[in-house]
Design brief:
The chain is built from eleven helices and eleven strands. By secondary structure, it is an alpha/beta fold. The N and C termini lie far apart (54 Å). The N terminus is likely disordered.
């Protein structure tokens, strides 16, 4: 018994020395991220905020069209079942609309950053329900505009218009609760190209739309080809997938999007084991979700832990084992 106590005391003493020498514990907590830690392990977790939305989803296989997509994505590696709304052709509701999600405790938060999330082509906005809820749980307002094709700038512009209207409507729960100065455009596939299209024109006209409106940046997940990086003037992260044969990392997402983004800081990261359809899989199954969340936290809140993955000479993303390859451009190199 005495020997056990002696060993316990020795262990406690050693721990105290480690905490005092070299800053172990205090410095790690302050600095946030240890070398070798992945963004997925830190930021993939659900945030503290409950989610409020009027959106209702059901299994996509409840409709014939949804069943076909369900079969395709599972054949290509997705694990979780797709979720859909009743928007046509998955149901009889209008194919055009905007799904809105926000923190249920937003009255206690002040103003929350805005994310406009545009879906991929010919898919239902409900397939991004889990992603939208994840982002809202971290303190964002998320709008998901859709018109089934989801391929051009007017789709995210529709989402932005609905958010602006809610922020200015005294009868809305979001009245004066959206921080328009921290607006982020995000999109997957066709929605990624549409987000870039709007990002190319929005900064020049934002003040005319609303004096408070500012575009903080873009998250382009496996974006379609109809966008040009040379027109982008805000920080942009391109997320690609090593197993993506629809938008391969070596194609247009590099040639005329990332490689041509010369007017703004830009990053591109190619995740192992990620296909084109992984973003509509379960949150735990999309291996780029943690990095997407880190990027949003960095843009929306200036989160210092998230910043470490993207900024500075010792930025952490290149060592993140989630990725096959990671790059950033010269303007991103200069950020501190």
């Amino acid at each position: 018994m005495n020997s056990k106590r002696a060993r316990a005391v020795a262990a406690l003493a050693a721990s105290a020395v480690l905490l005092a020498v070299g800053g172990v514990g205090s410095a790690a907590a302050d600095d946030g991220i240890a070398p070798g830690v992945t963004a997925q392990s830190v930021f993939e977790t659900t945030g503290p905020h409950p989610v409020a939305t009027a959106v209702r989803t059901n299994p996509c296989q409840d409709s014939v069209y949804g069943m076909l997509q369900h079969i395709v994505v599972h054949a290509l590696g997705n694990r979780d079942d797709l979720t859909c709304t009743q928007a046509f052709p998955y149901g009889l509701d209008s194919p055009i609309g905007v799904n809105t999600y926000y923190p249920a405790d937003i009255a206690d938060l002040g103003a929350a950053p805005l994310i406009v999330l545009t879906p991929g082509v010919i898919v239902d906005a409900g397939m991004y329900d889990a992603m939208a809820r994840q982002w809202v749980s971290h303190g964002f307002v998320v709008v998901v505009p859709h018109d089934f094709f989801n391929s051009l700038a007017y789709v995210p512009a529709l989402g932005l218009a609905v958010a602006l209207s809610a922020d200015h409507d005294p009868n809305s729960v979001l009245y004066n609760r959206i921080d328009l100065g921290r607006t982020i455009l995000a999109g997957h596939s066709a929605g990624g190209q549409a987000s870039q299209q709007l990002a190319a024109v929005l900064p020049a006209v934002a003040a005319q739309i609303d004096p408070a409106l500012q575009l903080a940046g873009v998250l382009a997940i496996a974006p379609g080809p109809l966008a040009v990086g040379a027109l982008i003037t805000v920080p942009t992260l391109y997320l690609t997938g090593y197993n993506d044969f629809v938008v391969p990392d070596f194609a247009w997402v590099r040639w005329w999007q990332y490689d041509q983004t010369v007017g703004a800081p830009a990053w591109i990261a190619n995740a192992r084991g990620v296909s084109h359809f992984s973003p509509v899989d379960g949150i735990d199954n999309y291996l780029g979700e943690g990095t997407a969340m880190a990027w949003l936290e960095y843009l929306g809140f200036g989160d210092e832990r998230a910043k470490q993955f993207f900024v500075g000479p010792d930025w952490l993303l290149p060592a993140d084992k989630t990725f096959y390859s990671v790059e950033r451009n010269a303007l991103a190199d200069q950020l501190r």
